[in-house]
Amino acid sequence: MLRETLVEAPATWRDGDGPEVDVVVYTAASLRRNVADFPFPAHCTEYERRSVEERVLSALESAPEIDRDRYVVLERVDEETLRLLAEGQWIPADCLDREGDSGVLIGRDRRLSVIVNGEDHIRTAVTLAGLQAQEAWGQADGLDDRLGMALDFAYHEEFGYLTASLAHTGSGLEMRGLLHLPGLAMANEIPEQQEAARASRHALENAFGGKRQGRGDLYILRNVVSLGRSEEELVFRFRHLAQALIEQERRARARMMEETPIMVADRVHRALGTAQSARLLDADEALSVISALRWGAASGAISGLSWRALNDLLVLSRPAHVRARLTRDADDLAQSMERAALFRTCCAQADA
């Protein structure tokens, strides 16, 4: 039942209803907290983990955006369901290998999730479409305030909130954004932008792997330090850097359209042809096709393809989501066939 729900009831950010969605797929704000008088989860006994879990769930009972019945204990679900949660951005990838009584609550509006006993006792996250840093942080902070009224958080007067990782100690806030940067990638300007991000204590990383260029031209922008900075300052700095990347990406796309229009047109039209007619499509090629389709939709070269459809393709074409629509013993060929069928269906009404 949970697997079907994850596939059929998507996260709100997939609607694509947000500002700057031509470059920023989504923005996420997460706040990490630990309950005082307990060790960090990695050092907790089973009894301590369960005590923390019960305290956190009790503190959340009065939150209108939370339904305790939606709490999922991760060790009680199979590996494929865990991968669905990770691909859907409900849990971080490190939860796939975590042992013990970790759990996740998905909010009623499917914007918010709360992870209990992950790397830290509590990780509250809100994910919104486009560039909505202030809004995502505000919603996460609202729930964090309610939790703080019921729980005693581990806090140090000099260092701030204490977390399992030094990277999050301080405010405990991590801002993340998934950015689509094909223009900067084609212009070989990603390394320059990564250096600029490092200089401002952020990281610009390949979202889906790739040694040099990110697969699908998709990159994660995130802050790498929170110590010594307020939450408001971290949100401001993240938004400022994201806005600069948006402007650089749009300039790079315009330059490519002016200098090599036939190359861009070929890339977009070739991708649409693949999406509408391919019978086999592997996961890496799917990301490349999605990248070109997003560029085509943003530039107006492709019509009849919404941001919702493109975001659905981005999630539903990932391996676990493809396997969820097939039998458990489906081989690579069957998965490639199913992925290609998904693209043909989603792009049937698109035109270039």
CATH domain fold name of the largest domain: Creatine Kinase, Chain A, domain 2
End-to-end separation in angstroms reads 39 Å
Query: What sort of overall outline do the alpha carbons produce when their principal axes are compared?
Result: globular
Assign the CATH superfamily of the largest domain: Glutamine synthetase/guanido kinase, catalytic domain
Structure description:
The structure is a single chain. This protein is an alpha+beta fold and 352 residues long. The chain folds into two domains: 2-251, Creatine Kinase, Chain A, domain 2; 261-346, no CATH class. The protein is 45% helix and 15% strand. The chain has twelve helices and ten strands. The protein has an eight-stranded antiparallel beta sheet, covered by helices on one side. Strands 6-7 form a two-stranded antiparallel ribbon. β6 and β7 form a beta hairpin. The longest helix has 29 residues, at 231-259. The protein is globular, with a radius of gyration of 21 Å. 44% of the residues are buried. The mean pLDDT is 92.
Per-chain topology:
Elements: H1 2-8, E1 24-33, H2 46-60, E2 72-73, H3 79-87, E3 103-106, E4 112-116, E5 122-129, H4 133-150, E6 155-156, E7 160-161, E8 173-180, H5 182-186, H6 190-199, E9 202-206, E10 218-223, H7 231-259, H8 261-277, H9 283-299, H10 307-316, H11 319-324, H12 332-346
Antiparallel strand pairs: 1-5, 1-8, 2-3, 3-4, 4-5, 6-7, 8-10, 9-10
Helix pairs in contact: 7-8, 8-9, 9-10, 10-12
